Amino acid sequence: MINIMNCKTFILALTLLSPLCLFADEKSAEFDADNGEDINELCAGCHGEFAQGGSDGEYPRLAGMPAAFIIRQMHLFRDRIRTNLAMVEYVDHRQMPDQDIIDVAHFISGIELPTRLPPLVEGVPFDALERLNLTRKLLNIPRLEGNSSAGLQSYNKECRSCHGDAGKGNHEKGVPLLAGQHTSYLQRTIEKYRNKQRIHDPEAPDENYFQSFTSEELNDIFAYLSIADD
Ligand code: HEC
Ligand code: HEC
């Protein structure tokens, strides 16, 4: 009898609690875009108003990156696993609670940057202000010297399975975009992987992965990526 009672109480408790659990799960997936936009003003000082990055790749582009990737990096910075002297004071727990990280990551992930302006058609009026705003958001990575067709082949063989078609990244899996990222940032990052200062692909870390490519092969891949967003 007692056992049955316990069991019933247990089931009752489960029934009562389950909506709460669901709510908790949904909560973490929710985000407050206005709060994200406010926080982005802090980030803009370095990463640019539209998270387009700046100073020729010293500050990486963040716009359009998978939210999961941004969130993971913010935690790595906060936990001092990925060193970032510039950002450290912005990401400590007091300044940047978990929900703020989620909000700003989703806001930034939703920013689209055009790579070209729509052509002007003679005789068709255009909105000058709208065009000016588009110009400010424009990001087209300058073409890098190199064998981009060899780069395309290597990219498709070695990188595409994770970084997606044409270097667009993979939002579901939280893999960063590479096309549309500043070339000097990509190059610097590879050096960090080679020097074991960062871990490439946390799901299957292989600290010697980039050692197996020659500098020329990587340069060709970056040459391809620099035109993949055209
Ligand atoms: C004082 C300058 C500065 C500010 C402000 C700043 N960052 Fe950064 N951030 C950097 C630098 C520099 C890097 C590149 C570090 C490196 O080379 O590994 C970076 C890297 C990142 C990365 C990793 C990107 C990648 O592709 O690996 C993310 C994500 C990021 N910042 C998010 C933010 C967010 C969100 C904010 C605002 C809350 C912010 N940053 C504010 C300087 C800054
Ligand atoms: C098996 C999956 C996988 C493959 C294959 C792969 N990557 Fe990655 N790569 C990742 C993941 C996951 C990350 C994000 C790591 C993190 O969260 O710190 C990443 C990160 C990067 C970054 C850092 C980007 C940034 O914004 O910080 C660069 C650069 C990069 N990869 C280049 C390459 C290149 C070039 C190739 C092919 C030669 C390649 N990757 C192949 C999974 C992969």
Task: Describe the model.
The protein has 230 residues and is mainly alpha-helical. The protein folds into 2 domains: 33-109, Cytochrome c-like domain (Cytochrome Bc1 Complex, Chain D, domain 2); 141-228, Cytochrome Bc1 Complex, Chain D, domain 2 (Orthogonal Bundle). The protein is 52% helix and 0% strand. The protein has helices spanning 2-29, 33-47, 67-78, 98-109, 128-137, 148-163, 183-194, 215-228. The model is unreliable at 1-27 (pLDDT under 50).
The largest sheet is: none
State the name of the first-level CATH class of the largest domain: Mainly Alpha
Total count of domains: 2
Percent of residues in β-strands: under 5%
User: Which class do the helix and strand fractions yield?
Assistant: mainly alpha
Question: How much helix, percentage-wise, in residues?
Answer: 40-55%
* Average pLDDT reading: 87
Count of helix runs: 8
How are helices and strands ordered from N to C?
HHHHHHHH
What is the CATH architecture annotation of the largest domain? Orthogonal Bundle
Radius of gyration: 22 Å
Q: Using the alpha-carbon principal axes, give the shape.
A: globular
